[in-house]
Amino acid sequence: MAAKTFDLVVIGAGPGGYVAAIRAAQLGKSVAIVERENLGGICLNWGCIPTKALLRSAEVFHLMHRAKEFGLTADKIGFDLDAVVKRSRKVAGQLSGGIGHLMKKNKITVVMGSAKLAGKGKVTVTTDKGTEELSAANIVLATGARARELPGLEADGDLVWTYRHALQPKRMPKKLLVIGSGAIGIEFASFFNTLGADVTVVEVLDRILPVEDAEISAFAKKQFEKQGMKIMEKSMVKKLDRAAPKVTAHIERGGKIEQHDFDTVISAVGIVANTEGLGLEELGAKIDRSFVVTDEYCRTGVDGLFVIGDATNGPWLAHKASHEGVMVAELIAGGHPHAVDPANIAGCTYCHPQVASVGLTEAKAKEAGYSVKVGRFPFIGNGKAIALGEPEGMIKTVFDAKTGEMLGAHMVGAEVTELIQGYVVGRQLETTEEDLMNTVFPHPTLSEMMHESVLDAYGRAIHF
Q1: How does strand 198-202 pair with strand 347-349?
Q2: Which residues pair with 411 in a beta bridge?
Q3: Of 235, 252, 316, 368, which sits most exposed with the smallest number of CB within 10 A?
Q4: What is the disulfide pattern of this chain (predicted)?
Q5: CATH placement of domain 160-269
Q6: What is the Cα–Cα distance from 76 to 46, expressed in whole angstroms?
Q7: What is the CATH number of domain 353-457?
């Protein structure tokens, strides 16, 4: 069978892949996209979107229990876990279907199956009908990643779960162990804790949310503990003894092994790129700990082969992958796009309270040799936060003391995942403290705290 020829073949229809395909089609390129499972990839189907739907249900449940604070009455508050999950899956399905519509609208050929690089510019796809051969001058690999599983801690779908099992839980955990306190681990810990599970989080490093600013991590930990979570830092799960209906975790802490019983364990100890068996090494692509090595334009060093998203350099975030997709498509079309700058990509964690950040932490800024000015503003000093009943939180900004450049911004509290984009724009535009001080923020809004945090860095805060 003769190969079908396109200007671009994209392997993987997650956020990076489908965005690359759409942008290339907009630029007049003929495009095929290959996906082995679901359009929208992990993000829409098993990651970003369905987890946010679950967390929204937990947030509403939490607020219902606080009804009296707002002068309201809510009796017999409860939840139906199956219905919560069903809503989450419906949201994911709606968005996945929307990707299919976008493919048709942009005249992109969709091939459902497993792809392999068969040589330079060649892709072989195994479908349920046989094999298809595709060829293109340019190939974009966007195959994403999956949960990392440690020896002895592997998921079984019954007692030990990955994020996929946690998204469609067979039961409501009564006593839950979450291994790992990155975004995935903390979001599931927050969800199940809010619904009433007895949750313990184990983190091998010296603090939870270890990529965040230390002050933000400490503030979040305090809030989680107030909500009833148990946090074990500088601790490691060495072994799991499985004997349904319980799991006994052997946890090393302070040089000693403790044993704790749980009915459910969620392992959230990082990711592994989906790069094996694709023919990358045969073409000459370099792989480092499962991730394909690329330059700032996602080029692999193999002519015409690009790798974007979770299969290559971090941060491993859907919005970073999408922007890389646009960048690569424009590069292929002969444009001159700017490289994606990881320092200007926000990280967001949708636990309760939310956590968001962009740029350097205070510690990283100092390590890089900067003399810094740091501003902080608490939610308790903001009228909108008090009116919302959300007085617990903080916004922190870090500036270069010599130039006024905003080096980083870090937040914890209600809706900070929405607020952070203001600072992201500021970073992208190379904003200084003067620009931010002279900006008028609307009142009453949570965004006023962003202004006050900047003012505080220079001894000018008004409301606290």
Answers
A1: unpaired
A2: 356, 395
A3: 368
A4: 43-48
A5: 3.50.50.60
A6: 31
A7: 3.30.390.30
From the list 416, 350, 376, 342, the residue with the least C-alpha distance to 215 is: 376
- Looking at the annotation, which residues are catalytic? 443
Residue 133 assigned ligand-binding role: no
180 among the known binding-site residues? yes
Please check if 185 is assigned to a binding site: yes
Structure tokens at 94: 């709606």
Residue 252 is encoded by which pair of tokens? Answer: 């090393």
Tokens of 13: 């229809």
φ, ψ (nearest 5 deg) of residue 28: 90, 10
Round to whole Å and give the CA distance between 351 and 231. Answer: 15
Contact 46, 167 (CB under 8 A): yes
Q: Is 187 annotated as a binding residue?
A: yes
Please list the rounded mean pLDDT of every run of 10 residues in the chain (464 residues).
90 96 98 94 87 97 97 96 97 92 97 95 94 97 94 95 95 98 97 98 98 98 98 97 96 96 97 95 95 97 97 94 98 96 96 98 98 98 98 98 97 98 96 96 98 98 93
Residue with tokens 């967390």: 55
Instruction: Give me the DSSP letters along 146-215.
Output: EE---TT----SSSEE-HHHHHS-SS--SEEEEE--SHHHHHHHHHHHHTT-EEEEE-SSSSSSTTS-HH
Q: In this structure, which amino acid lies at residue 238?
A: K
CA 294 centroid distance within chain: 21
Q: Is 270 annotated for ligand binding?
A: yes
In angstroms, the CA 99 to CA 296 distance is 27
Query: CB atoms < 10 A from the CB of 295, how many?
Result: 12
**Domain 4-147+272-342 falls under CATH 3.50.50.60:** yes
- Is the pTM higher than 0.85? The answer reads yes
- Cβ within 8 Å of residue 289, ≥6 positions away: none
Contact (CB, 8 A) for 277 and 290: no
Fold matches, 4-147+272-342 and 353-457? no
